[in-house]
Write a structure and sequence with these properties.
Number of helices: 12
Structural class: mainly alpha
Largest sheet: 3 strands, antiparallel
Length: 293
């Protein structure tokens, strides 16, 4: 069954309105290699192989894959949510087969291999969501030597950058951005619940993964987490996945709307020319930008 990642990859690799993959145009990226981590090592490696390359060529090799890198991270979020949903479906089947239910107004803990799978899938979803953010924009390892890294800082086109920033700000301000401190805690410190005991059957008969309130600042120990909001990790995971889908759709649309003129297909030229009311202006445009496949 095709995934969202398959759909995104097709839109980027085989765009209907461009003669090359989205992000292919070198004019869309900053061409100064000194802006990018790894340029010195890559340049030295190419020289050791006997390849003569211009600095702008090295810069292009460091940037042309950045859009795909973001999609791959978003695909990691998708794979995590698919594993999480499959684990929950297995838990629901286990509950039904054994006629389990919560009693005495107390939720029932579920000790089952699928519960372990669900918790690790939830952890992976947090990590991949964090990765989406960092592949868009992150501090350099050596902040004194390099500016911020990622897709956004590498963009030269101001219009394209504005469009990408709009989608990125919405992602950062939504559940993915708000979960950043929780993702950091899971990555660097501990899983928020033990995977053998963390899943439970609610009084309503639904499965849940109880998670703490989203920390507003860095947390370094379990005991510093708060649990006042009765938050369900399954709801949070699905909200994050929806936010990632919306973001990637906006990101791809930004690139689709900013295809360099030399890479546009005929139909896009024709649409633009037809929108020009003055025949003289249309003729002048066509002379300057001849139609060619």
């Amino acid at each position: 069954m095709p995934t969202k990642f398959d759909e995104w990859s097709k839109r980027v690799s085989f765009p209907e309105s461009a003669l090359a993959p989205l992000g292919f145009g070198s004019e869309q990226w900053n061409s100064a290699p000194r802006l990018y981590e790894g340029f010195e090592q890559l340049q030295a490696r190419l020289r050791a192989l006997g390849r003569k390359t211009r600095k702008s060529d090295v810069a292009y090799q460091l940037t042309s894959h950045l859009l795909t890198d973001v999609l791959v991270a978003a695909g990691g979020v998708e794979q995590s949510i698919l594993r999480l949903d499959a684990a929950v479906a297995e838990l629901e089947a286990y509950v039904a087969a054994n006629h389990l239910q919560a009693t005495s107004n107390i939720p029932l803990g579920l000790g089952h291999p699928a519960a372990v799978t669900a918790w690790y899938a939830f952890s992976d979803l947090l990590s991949w969501s964090r990765t989406v953010i960092e592949r868009m924009e992150r501090p350099a390892g050596d902040r004194r030597k390099f500016p911020k890294q990622g897709l956004l800082p590498a963009l030269r086109s101001k219009r394209l950058r504005r469009r990408c920033e709009t989608a990125f700000i919405a992602l950062r301000d939504g559940p993915v951005g708000r979960s950043r401190n929780l993702a950091n805690f899971v990555l660097h410190t501990a899983l928020v619940r033990h995977p053998h005991t963390g899943a439970r059957l609610e009084l309503s008969g639904s499965i849940s993964l109880p998670v703490p309130d989203l920390p507003a600042e860095q947390v370094s120990h379990w005991y510093l987490l708060t649990w006042q909001g009765d938050q369900d990790g399954l709801v949070l995971a699905r909200d994050m996945w929806q936010a990632v889908q919306t973001f990637v759709g906006g990101l791809i649309h930004a690139f689709e709307s900013s295809i360099p003129k030399r890479l546009r297909r005929k139909s896009q030229f024709v649409s633009y020319v037809c929108s020009i009311r003055s025949p003289r202006r249309a003729d002048a445009y066509l002379k300057k930008h001849p139609l060619s496949d």
